[in-house]
Amino acid sequence: MLISEALGRGSYKEHYAFVWLTLQTKWIDGAMVYLADADAFALEPFTARLGIIEQR
User: Fold this and answer.
1) pLDDT tens per residue across span 17-53
2) How far apart are CA 49 and CA 26, in angstroms?
3) Quick check: 50 and 25 in contact, CB under 8 A?
4) What is the pTM of this model?
5) Residue 55, CB half-sphere, CA atoms under 13 Å: how many?
6) How far is residue 10 from each of residues 1, 29, 32, 53, measured CA to CA in Å?
7) How many CB atoms lie within 10 A of CB 33?
């Protein structure tokens, strides 16, 4: 599981999270929140790169 820091303005804060099955999926890299200076987004995007674990 990957969870972001508390994000938001004023007293209202939210967390983003990715939850995945570790037998089928792996975290590759990234865990980034895009912070825009000029309200480009209603909620800032939280990104990460996940991959599929090859089954043998």
Assistant:
1) 989 888 899 999 877 777 767 766 666 778 888 899 9
2) 9
3) yes
4) 0.62
5) 4
6) 27, 30, 21, 40
7) 13
